[in-house]
């Protein structure tokens, strides 16, 4: 990988406990490994800045790995067993049957620590931060990927990406060897990156679409209220007319305009009443009826509560 990374390309299989420090999994100059394992591990740089790895390891004694991880994005599918590590003082646990994403916006110290007699069978891809930057420069649609490594550390489960899980299983069970395996790993690893980008882009598009729909609903509600200030429709009537629930209508309006329907109607009525009074062509009672008050006394009370003085003072 182009960014400095402790992970090396290697492929080994231990039938009996073997030292992980001697297996070439990590760069000894930037990591310290204590513990042994049985089983297999393989890692291969399939594209500049993109490394695929998988393993099925059992740990007969406690495992501890101290390392420094670079700015990067790591997507991991845990098939069974478990894995955990501490990054920047935070414990991250990888659960079986789940996709996980670890994104680092900068180089951070990390420590893997697993108990004796534990095991882990999993697959993953490591993506260098500068490779993500290169992708984002080439195509603005891929900027959501770069945003994942924008700042600090982020650790999430990705349960809504079944396509990525399928790709990891195909990689883990790859029937190829040699050059064909390298091509297979490269194509499917890039496909994982593509699926993740599509997932993020689709998620953001859905959010934007939802925001636009909510804003359109609020704007139409406001238009209906403005046209009927003297007899404004109820929230329930508006909701039926616009084909949404009353709760959705109220939330959309409040989110867009920062006030409730009732507060908005009261404000618009008072501002219109003041404008009419300042024309000095209307009596107070006429203004009251015009803005929807059947009782001028109620209008005067509301006007004074809103402006701090009576309508006659205008």
Q: From the 3D structure, determine the CATH topology of the domain at 10-176.
A: Jelly Rolls
**Principal-axes shape call:** elongated
Q: How large is the count of helical segments?
A: 9
Strand runs, count: 12
> Do you know the CATH architecture of the domain at 10-176?
Sandwich
Tell me which oligomeric state these chains represent: single chain
Biggest sheet, spatial arrangement of strands: 1-3-4-11-6-9-12
Taking all Cα atoms into account, the compactness measure Rg is 31 Å
Gap between N and C termini: 75 Å
Overall description:
This protein has 314 residues and is an alpha+beta fold. Among the domains are: 10-176, Jelly Rolls (Sandwich), CATH 2.60.120.10; 262-313, Arc Repressor Mutant, subunit A (Orthogonal Bundle), CATH 1.10.10. 42% of the residues lie in helices and 29% in strands. It has 9 helices and 12 strands. It has helices at 129-138, 143-147, 162-172, 178-227, 235-242, 246-257, 261-278, 284-290, 296-307, and strands spanning 10-19, 31-34, 36-47, 50-59, 63-69, 72-81, 83-87, 90-94, 99-104, 108-114, 118-128, 153-157. It has a 7-stranded antiparallel sheet. It has a 5-stranded antiparallel sheet with strand order 2-5-10-7-8, with no helix packed on it. Helix 5 (235-242) crosses helix 6. The mean pLDDT is 88.
